[in-house]
Amino acid sequence: MIVIDAVTKRYPDGTTAVDRLTLEIPDRSITVLVGPSGCGKTTTLRMINRMVDPSGGRILLDGHDIRERPVNALRRSMGYVIQHAGLFPHRTVIENIATVPRLLGWDRSRARARGLELMERVGLDTALAKRYPYQLSGGQQQRVGVARALAADPPVLLMDEPFSAVDPIVRKGLQDELLRIQADLGKTVVFVTHDIDEAIKLGDMVAVLREGGRLAQYAPPAELLSAPADEFVEDFLGADRGIRHLSFFGTEGLELTAEPIVAEDATTEQVRAHTIPQTPYVLVTDTEGRPRGWTHAADRAAGLPTELLPYGHAFTYGQDSLRAALDSAVLSPTGWAVAVDAEGRAIGVAAQETIAAAIRGAHATVGPRDSVRGVLA
Ligand SMILES: Nc1ncnc2c1ncn2[C@@H]1O[C@H](COP(=O)(O)OP(=O)(O)O)[C@@H](O)[C@H]1O
Ligand SMILES: [Mg+2]
């Protein structure tokens, strides 16, 4: 565990960058520091690996003041990733990744093998190993930056706005990759961002900082969304707080009905048998069971020509969140959401009212601390 204990940083010009910050950063989880520009996030991160010295307070790593450790040993136990990756421009990808292992005296072939293994782990084609950083996209460079930070398998990973400079689609890929890597490796990650959505998606714990380096709230993301500590946190979280909170509630247990589902080759009798009073529509699937669209049940049963209405999008039952289920009901012209299994086969449908009842139930029974990490829709 990393303990930041009443730490203050005043720069020589009198700027107070961090003001009596106290945080307990748990092992093997992702702790995010988030806040507006200039609120002391980078300064805090750089105090953890002693690139910046605190003016007051102390930082403990596994119970020991970090000032007791030789600074080189401390830094090698902490991978560091920054915006724009900060790669060495005159070294190839594989040389960049193998930097710390080589410093630690690994021989060339072992360092190279480790580099190739890490390229795969961060989702990079090993064919890129001999390229130079300028021959890579921004997203690929960030992946190299993450691989380099992981090279000597440090227990701690410090990441300073690592994904801020890439476009939203690439950023989403990098975030998903980080969550995947973290599920495998279980590092103690301290992640800095100014993007609250990124903080909510990635963080097991989120520290919201405000100007002057003061802590506004430290909580799991679901709790931030359901109970912001003050107006500053509420403003910083932005709009749709309630809807976003639904990402933390699963769809397992949501009541579905499979009744109004028919295959595209269903007979008129079958369509009639699958018509329910709650909706004039039936969901038509292909012969594999994948949803195709809604159609008017009575017209279909009467053998009249009918058209297929789009169903919006389906949600994967038990895997997607109530946010995804609600979104799929809102987008559906019939007001009913379509649930599919992992293979994309329709297993049932749910009315908006059913989803609303599930949302009320989730709020009533699941405290935010018990909820799981959000499956962001
Ligand atoms: N070396 C420095 N000398 C003086 N002031 C600094 C220095 N580095 C950062 N600051 C100031 O400290 C405050 C916090 O900076 P920083 O930690 O970089 O914030 P953030 O990463 O949250 O944007 C800002 O007001 C910044 O201008
Ligand atoms: Mg910064």
From TrEMBL:
Residues 2-237 form the ABC transporter domain. The keyword Nucleus does not apply. Its EC number is 7.6.2.9. It is an enzyme of class 7 (translocase). Keywords: ATP-binding, Nucleotide-binding, Transport. One of its GO terms (molecular function) is ATP hydrolysis activity. InterPro entries: AAA+_ATPase, ABC_transporter-like_ATP-bd, ABC_transporter-like_CS, P-loop_NTPase. Gene3D superfamilies: P-loop containing nucleotide triphosphate hydrolases. PANTHER family: OSMOPROTECTANT IMPORT ATP-BINDING PROTEIN OSMV. Belongs to the ABC transporter superfamily. This is ABC-type quaternary amine transporter. It comes from Streptacidiphilus jiangxiensis.
